[in-house]
Amino acid sequence: MTDDDDTEREVKNIVIRTNMLIRKFQKCSAAVKATLFKSSCLRFNTQHYSKYFKVGTMNKFRSCYNKCVKLFFGY
């Protein structure tokens, strides 16, 4: 009765979407990149999963999200 499989799927999807955005919108301004990233990569609703996940799985998601932000914005 956990949502770890959904979280793992979202980790893979955020990496795929970020790579697509990097490839297509690499030379855009930071404001445009922020809007694109918010609209395409932040589809994960954490309120529903607040009780049914393992802490390690959410840490993996958080780590993946931070890496994707750094890659996309060039930090």
Could you name the key traits of this structure?
75 residues
Secondary structural class:
mainly alpha
Whole-angstrom Rg: 13 Å
Overall pLDDT: 81
Low-confidence stretches: none
In sequence order, what are the helices and strands, one letter per element?
HHH
Q: Roughly how many Å apart are the termini?
A: 38 Å
Considering DSSP H and I runs of 4 or more, what fraction of the residues is helical? 55-70%
The total of helices stands at 3
Q: How many strand units?
A: 0
How many structural domains can be distinguished in the coordinates?
1
- Strand content is under 5%
Largest sheet: none
Shape: elongated
Give an overview of the whole structure.
The protein has 75 residues and is mainly alpha-helical. It has one domain. Helices cover 69% and strands 0% of the residues. It contains three helices and no strands. The longest helix has 21 residues.
